[in-house]
TrEMBL record, chain A:
The chain crosses the membrane at residues 28-54, 88-113, 125-148, 168-193, 235-253, 273-300. The keyword Transferase does not apply. This is Carbohydrate ABC transporter membrane protein 1 (CUT1 family). Residues 84-299 form the ABC transmembrane type-1 domain. GO terms for cellular component: plasma membrane. It comes from the Bacteria. Belongs to the binding-protein-dependent transport system permease family. It comes from Kribbella pratensis. The lineage of its organism: Bacteria, Bacillati, Actinomycetota, Actinomycetes, Propionibacteriales. It is a multi-pass membrane protein. InterPro entries: MetI-like, MetI-like_sf. Keywords: Cell membrane, Membrane, Transmembrane, Transmembrane helix, Transport. One of its GO terms (biological process) is transmembrane transport. It is found in: Cell membrane. Pfam families: BPD_transp_1.
Automatic annotation (TrEMBL), chain B:
The keyword Transmembrane applies. This is Carbohydrate ABC transporter membrane protein 2 (CUT1 family). Keywords: Cell membrane, Membrane, Transmembrane, Transmembrane helix, Transport. The chain crosses the membrane at residues 67-90, 102-126, 138-158, 179-204, 241-259. Residues 67-259 form the ABC transmembrane type-1 domain. Its main location: membrane.
Length: 308, 275
């Protein structure tokens, strides 16, 4: 990704740039299907979102008959509503536990361990982790619902070592869905880090070892600094992916019991469709978009400053 | 020193194995439950393995039609994505204009946007355009949602094709589209396959988009119709659910195997993403 612009310039060096303006436009013509689709189905909805968030639009009731501008009412309502702050809080917990701590650390750990393990073990673990990733979202959700259930495998294991079990989906639903998301998403971080680690020249680590740096010190002072970029990129990408997880949680708990695992996407869905409050739902969507946009911009800046 | 190396290798292997087992256990459940007529929720090998669950779900309503719908929906959308992405990547990769950089940055920015958040306004848009519950509309939206990432990856792969061959073609009077079709695409087909397969796998697992935009049971793809196993009448039949899950998962597993064996795909993708 660093080399975004560089190949373009070498390519452009070979093309005659003395063409008239019309010809230049014609050359860019192949972009039009992509731009058209993105304008209609991506930019359009986002603009519509900005508009609808400030109205009382609804599928039933007064908001359905005549839509009118209500200013910041939706946002005021959101930030003073316990359910909304609850969902923000849960989204934060879900993202920190499952993406930033879980997937990221486990992915890094796996890729580091895989470098010093035997091939059979490496292949077995790699296949298992990637297998969990390739499964469709809903299937993964069912597998893990079964795993965390009162009669499920986790409790069988806990009983076997003498620990008390419980119905995890009722007792600690947000922890259960977070663990489920770790199970499902770790492969991505593992692949990113494996690719990054494979690019570190062997000599660097060997010379650090010669100088007497032990395992942990080598990791902290030599290996990790060399993959800082990969770490930042990976953190940003998995955070963005995790913020918008819907199917996994919906299929496992429907946001329940009560609202104990209702993250922002599920809250938005409930408000907009179960309760038909489109205006309010889009206001929440706008908050989500804004959060995503901020992360996305930080990510872009990071890439850009590195490329420059 | 060598003894310590051995020890650390052994420790790595043991820790890895333990993690691997945790990842495998839920997967084992689906395998065992699918051949168990009285499957429960825990991992246990059935006393009388049977294919009855598969026979029970292999009918038009439960399996064939949803899978076919999924193939039409995801196949159509992945192809549309690919055609648009290749067309868009060509000028972005080959010509330098002032427009390229802002466009690519916008594309990269879009890859980060949570599509889930856009779904409420998209539903509104679909109501306005009368596209709710149409396969065509859903295909177009799914294609658009994966376009930014596909454009980005395709351009990265296309940048790897040297320009000199095309220059020769241009000298011989071939137009840009002809050069793209006859020279660039044949040279980057592994890249194309990687993007196409990844787009398809992503769509095949996508639940939220078809769940929102399609309504009629006869149009629902496999990712959504799986919910029919949870009727209003209490416990679902876990054995059949497991069998259905396996059938629904098989296409993406095969595609993934193809990708990793023939194309080194996942690894290449990790490399392309890590920046």
């Amino acid at each position: 990704m660093t080399t975004t612009v560089a190949p373009t310039s070498t390519a452009a060096a070979g093309t005659p740039s003395r063409r008239p303006r019309g010809a230049k436009l014609v050359r860019m013509l192949p972009l039009s299907p992509a731009i058209g689709l993105m304008l209609v189905f991506l930019a359009g909805p986002i603009i519509y979102c900005v508009y609808a968030a400030f109205t009382n639009m609804a599928l039933t009731g007064t908001g359905a008959a005549n839509v009118k501008f209500v200013g910041l009412d939706n946002f005021r309502k959101a930030f003073s509503s316990g359910a909304f702050t609850n969902s923000i809080w849960l989204t934060l917990v879900f993202t920190v536990i499952s993406a930033i701590i879980g997937q990221n650390t486990l992915g890094l750990g796996l890729s580091l361990l895989m470098r010093r393990s035997t091939k059979v073990v490496r292949n077995f673990v790699g296949t298992a982790v990637i297998g969990a990733w390739v499964l469709p979202e809903v299937v993964a959700a069912y597998l893990l619902s079964a795993f965390f259930n009162d009669d499920g495998t986790l409790n069988v294991m806990l009983h076997a070592v003498g620990l008390p079990g419980q119905d995890w989906l009722y007792a600690a639903p947000i922890i259960a869905v977070s663990l489920a998301n770790i199970w499902r998403g770790t492969a991505f971080s593992m692949l990113v880090y494996s690719a990054a680690l494979s690019e570190i020249p062997k000599e660097i680590e060997e010379s650090a070892e010669m100088d007497g740096a032990g395992g942990w010190r080598r990791l902290i002072f030599v290996t990790l600094p060399m993959i800082t970029r990969a770490i930042m990129t990976n953190l940003m990408l998995i955070t963005l992916q995790t913020l918008s997880v819907f199917g996994l949680i919906y299929a496992m708990t429907r946001g329940g019991p009560g609202t104990k695992s209702q993250t922002l996407p599920l809250y938005m869905y409930e408000q907009a469709f179960s309760f038909s409050q489109i205006g309010y739902g889009t206001a929440i969507a706008l908050v989500m978009l804004a959060i995503g946009a901020v992360f996305s911009l930080i990510y872009l800046r990071g890439l850009n400053s590195e490329a420059a | 020193m060598i003894a310590r190396d051995r020890m650390s290798k052994l420790a790595s292997n043991l820790v890895l194995l333990a993690i691997g087992v945790l990842f495998v256990l839920p997967l084992l459940w689906v395998l065992f439950a699918s051949i168990n007529r009285t499957a429960g929720l825990r991992v246990e090998f059935p006393t009388h393995p049977t294919l009855g669950n598969f026979r029970a779900v292999l009918n038009t309503d439960t399996t064939y039609r949803p899978v076919l719908n999924g193939i039409i929906l995801c196949g159509g959308a992945a192809l549309l994505t690919m055609v648009c992405a290749v067309l868009a990547a060509y000028p972005l990769s080959r010509f330098r204009t002032r427009f390229n950089r802002p466009f690519l940055l916008t594309v990269l920015f879009c890859t980060g946007l949570p599509i889930t958040a856009v779904m409420v306004p998209v539903y509104g848009l679909f109501v306005q355009l009368n596209l709710v519950d149409t396969l065509g509309g859903t295909i177009m939206f799914m294609a658009t949602a994966s376009l930014p990432f596909a454009i980005w990856l395709t351009k990265t792969f296309m940048d790897g094709v040297p320009l000199s061959l095309e220059e020769a073609a241009w000298v011989d009077g071939a137009g840009n589209m002809r050069a793209l079709w006859a020279i660039v695409l044949p040279l980057m087909w592994p890249g194309i396959a990687v993007v196409l397969i990844f787009t398809f796998i992503g769509m095949w697992g996508n639940f939220f988009v078809p769940f929102m935009l399609l309504l009629s049971p006869e149009r629902l793809p496999a990712s959504v119709s799986i919910f029919t196993f949870f009727g209003q009448y209490g416990e679902p039949n876990y054995g059949q659910l497991a069998a259905y899950s396996l059938i629904y998962t098989t296409p993406v597993l095969l595609l993934y195997l193809l990708l990793s064996r023939k194309l080194g795909g996942a690894f290449a993708l990790g490399g392309a993403i890590k920046g």
